[in-house]
Model the fold of this input.
Amino acid sequence: MRSTSDTIAAIGLAIGGALGMAGTFVGSDALRETLWTIDGVGIVVAAALLTMKYQRLGNDLVAAGFLTFLAGESLLLAGNAAGLQASVPSYAGGIALWAAGLVMVSAQGTFALWMRLTAFVAAVLFAVSVLMILWGAPLLPTSSPLPALGYPLLVLTFIGWIWTLLKSVR
Done:
């Protein structure tokens, strides 16, 4: 039987993935900030529940990865209301923690190989984006090709995590 926590985590990841991607493409600052705030709360809730799940299962590295990802998402949430340009410092810190969390979650064979690969490639793209920001590149959260190339891979990873949560019932 699927736990309520797994269902809520899956919903949080789905909301996070959908609204996060949608926020990247909207033109209105207020709408983008609203979508990203709702997205961020969904991801924080999901990551908190996944931290607890994998810690209870004794998979400390995966649990710590989800906790690290949660910390990164919290930094992103903190910068949302500031607007794109003003959010860059918290954005850089947030995606740096995303990258670390994704690598930690994917370091063991807990998830299918394709999920671990999408997470790892997203982590590399986010890490490169952080380094570019730190070295003065004028990147915003909506800049393309980086960091924008990492978002679809992150959402694909979320889809895999959702699938893992929901398939465990069968």
